[in-house]
Specification:
about 140 residues; alpha+beta; about 45% helix
Length: about 140
């Protein structure tokens, strides 16, 4: 089971949950589900699993780590690449902490053995608990 969370980076609240059966690429899930309701003015911060998203969305922060992408940069941009990647990693760290809080419940970090039709409901409830804890300042 593959899942995708959309998190507000300022409030660290989970906004949206997307799930896909089996093994699916991150960008494929994003294109099939989320792409329809993301406004073009919204800044998307994502990891390198979403390479190619910059062709579909104008405002995206994506780390430059792939050799082919580095080769396309000018010499001056190659020098600032490391600092840019650090800024992106700093933002992503908060997002990864929220994902870690969801994984504490072990519904997505281990094999799910209950009725699949209730999985999305339970996952939504867990994300609601994480949001509630964030709102109280416990998370």
């Amino acid at each position: 089971m593959k899942f995708q969370l959309i998190i507000d980076r300022h409030t660290e609240q989970i906004i949206s949950i997307e799930m896909a059966k089996g093994k699916a690429h991150d960008l494929t899930i994003f294109k099939e589900t989320t792409m329809t309701y993301i406004h073009p003015s919204i800044l998307i911060v994502c990891d390198s699993g979403y390479r190619g998203l910059q062709k579909l969305h104008s405002r995206i922060l994506l780390p430059i780590r792939h050799k082919a992408d580095i080769a396309k940069l000018t010499k001056s941009r190659q020098l600032t690449r490391k600092a840019r990647n650090k800024k992106i990693a700093r933002i992503r760290m908060k997002i990864e902490h929220v994902i870690g809080q969801v994984k504490v419940f072990r519904i997505v970090s281990e094999q799910y053995r209950n009725a699949r039709k209730r999985l999305h409901l339970r996952f939504s409830l867990i994300c609601g608990i994480v949001n509630y804890e964030k709102g109280l300042g416990l998370g």
